[in-house]
Design brief:
This protein is of the alpha+beta class. It folds into three domains: 6-203, Histidine kinase-like ATPase, C-terminal domain (Heat Shock Protein 90, 2-Layer Sandwich); 207-286 and 293-316, no CATH class; 409-598, no CATH class. It contains 15 helices and 19 strands. The chain has an eight-stranded mixed sheet. Strands 14-15-16-19-18-17 form a six-stranded mixed sheet. A hairpin with a 3-residue loop joins strand 3 and strand 4 (117-123). The N and C termini lie far apart (72 Å). InterPro entries: HATPase_C_sf.
Length: 618
């Protein structure tokens, strides 16, 4: 028989790596194929310090899979010594699955008690039948595979891993039950994570609410609908090859009435699964389809989406319809400027981020078509241009709302870095308008012009920043020009700096002085600058607030926390006004949200005017 370089074969066929989920699925599947009805999966986690031994353990150290199947008979040992065996062809076996063990771990040990014989060996890339140790011993049949010395130390969430395994195996256990065989899998672990220590997943508890068949291009697809009660939620299509889930297609993450899983099988899916059953090699578009793979994702996924929702609606007594109504209400509240009926009828089942993504894609396509028409010299209606501009403004307001919402959820201790990146990413050249959000500070900076768009200005700001940092050990985080005079020269400057929470009154006061000195040096070097706005983003405690009030700072209206302001004159001639604002990060965010809501209200009114009513979905 020809030899094979097993190490190279594994490296070539498992290029994407192997996970605990892959290994457990392979082991459990082998147990089922060996006739096992009772299977146990023990997840052992390593202890990582701790005085009392009661700490949560996250790093998986060992996996033990046991079963009551037929075990390693002589025939099975012979198959085990052969790569790409054919004895499981009729049940979808590829003959290479066990190689995942070798990719995942440095040590794989097998112990198989037959009726009158104990079989033991260590499985390695150099395994040969002569390595098997056989001992005369009587006992109940039990085969155990111990996988240890894992090649990667990765944090493992027990709940996520076990739930994923149940999803992968649900259809297989259901179909075995239908054929008269009940299989039970017992998961145990010692991680002390918040998941029950002993969890049983049994085929006897699995029921399909509905089955359905549909055809695409002559290929048949069988669907099995399963339901899990709340708090689990979402709608997921499980694309299966040889009755095992290979790919999850998320239809809705937000569906919160319960959780629906639709397992989908097909001879077509069996054929296009890769050899390790880790992915489905489906052509992306119809243009990429061929005789071997005639159905593309472009054709298949919308049909799966449609069939899955139809199945749920048929058996769930209006679950989908109820969710659609509730979701449309939420979407209209938070995105009143998007016409929901323009999203191909899918808005009701989409999550908010998907709505925005779909909306933006549609608007971009409309813009492209309009530009193409203008370039080709075709007549373009003024209303089309006007509506496009209006819609583009709505898209910008959507962007602003998403930025503000993400910032509002950040922890206070992360405010400096997160807010800095939101306004202008560190080390960014600022040329891409999508990379900056200076409007967060004040909407007058919507006309912001990057310092980096002019090489001379950029050089001056870098030089002054370096000199300031050398003298003061700190420079403000952001400096930008947002206005130009009639000759195109920069005449207004905005400076923004962030101070980490926890600084004392002396550091905070020093930061204000540094900001003034930095601004003064800049205006001395750039003669066309006639006005400077500076924003110091810093926590304001009672002591710092009182000190600023004593030194002339005045209160500025804010919706939440205290904001103060003072005017100074800077420059060598003390003739350039500097407007200095001091505010906490969350005050900046809340005030930005309030300003953005003004735009939202205007757009909501416009939508109502456009449709003839206040209903934004009309």
């Amino acid at each position: 028989m020809a030899r094979i370089n097993l190490k190279k074969f594994i490296a070539e066929h498992y290029k994407g790596g192997v996970t605990a989920r892959d290994v457990i699925r392979e082991g459990v599947t082998n147990s089922i194929q060996a006739g096992a009805n009772s299977i146990s999966v023990d997840l052992l986690f390593s202890r990582q310090g701790g005085l009392f031994g009661d700490e949560v353990r996250n790093v998986l150290d060992k996996i033990i899979i046991s079963d009551d199947g037929e075990g390693f008979t002589q025939d099975n040992l012979n198959y085990f010594d052969e790569i790409c065996t054919g004895h499981k062809d009729d049940i979808g076996g590829k003959g290479v699955g066990r190689l995942a063990f070798l990719k995942y771990a440095n040590r794989v040990e097998v112990r198989s008690q037959l009726a009158a014989e104990l079989i033991e060996f260590r499985y390695t890339p150099d395994f040969k039948l002569e390595d098997v140790v056989k001992t005369e011993k009587y006992g109940p049949r039990e085969t155990t595979i111990t996988i240890s010395e894992l090649k990667d130390q990765i944090n493992t969430q027990v709940a996520k891993l076990i739930n994923s395994m149940c999803d992968d195996l649900r259809l297989l256990l259901f179909l075995k039950k239908k054929s008269g065989r009940t299989i039970s899998i017992n998961f145990t672990h010692n991680s002390k994570q918040s998941f029950q220590d002993d969890f049983i997943f049994s085929g006897k508890d699995i029921e399909a609410q509905k089955t359905k068949t549909f055809e695409v291009n002559g290929e048949t697809f069988d669907c099995y609908l399963f339901r899990e009660e709340a708090p689990r939620k979402g709608i997921v299509a499980m694309l299966c090859a040889d009755e095992l889930c290979v790919e999850e297609y998320q239809i809705s993450k937000r569906f919160d009435i319960c959780r629906y899983l639709i397992s989908i099988t097909s001879t077509y899916l069996n054929q296009i699964s890769n050899i390790e059953r880790q992915k489905l090699e489906i052509p992306k578009t119809d243009a990429e389809a061929d005789l071997a793979s005639p159905i593309s994702r472009e054709t298949l996924m919308p049909r799966i989406h449609e069939e899955c929702l139809a199945m749920i609606n048929e058996v769930a007594e209006g679950d989908i319809d109820a969710f659609k109504c509730a979701n449309i209400g939420k979407l209209q509240k938070y995105y009143p400027f998007i016409q929901m009926d323009s999203l191909n009828g899918d808005a009701a089942i989409l999550d908010a981020d998907e709505v925005v993504k779909t909306y933006r894609a549609q608007q971009a396509r409309r813009e492209d078509l309009l530009v193409e028409a203008m370039e080709a010299g075709r007549k373009v209606a003024f209303d089309d241009i006007s509506h496009l501009a209006s819609d583009d403004l709505a898209r910008f307001i959507v962007h602003r709302a998403l930025v503000i919402d993400s910032l509002a959820n950040m922890p206070r201790e992360s405010a400096e870095d997160v807010l800095h990146d939101a306004i202008l990413r560190k080390h960014s050249n600022g040329n891409d308008i999508r990379e900056n959000n200076v409007w967060l500070v004040d909407d007058k900076f919507l006309s912001y012009s990057s310092i980096y768009s002019d090489e001379t200005l950029a050089k001056i700001v870098r030089e002054v920043g370096t000199e300031t940092e050398s003298k003061q050990k700190r420079k403000p985080d952001i400096a930008a020009f947002y206005s130009k005079d009639e000759k195109g020269q920069p005449n207004k400057l905005v400076i923004i700096e962030f101070k980490k929470p926890g600084a004392d009154i002396f550091d905070n006061s020093k930061a204000l002085l540094q900001c003034r000195l930095y601004a003064s040096e800049l205006v001395d070097r750039i003669a066309t600058v006639r006005e400077v706005f500076a924003f110091s983003v810093v926590e304001i405690d009672d002591e710092f607030y009182k000190d600023m009030k004593r030194t002339g700072f005045k209160d500025v209206f804010s919706l939440s926390e205290r904001v103060v302001y003072n005017d100074f004159v800077i420059g060598s001639s003390d003739d350039i006004p500097l407007h200095l604002y001091v505010m906490p990060a969350f005050s900046l965010i809340n005030d930005a949200r309030a300003r953005n809501r003004v735009f939202e209200e205007v757009l909501r009114f416009n939508m109502g005017s456009k449709t003839g009513s206040g209903d934004a979905s009309s």
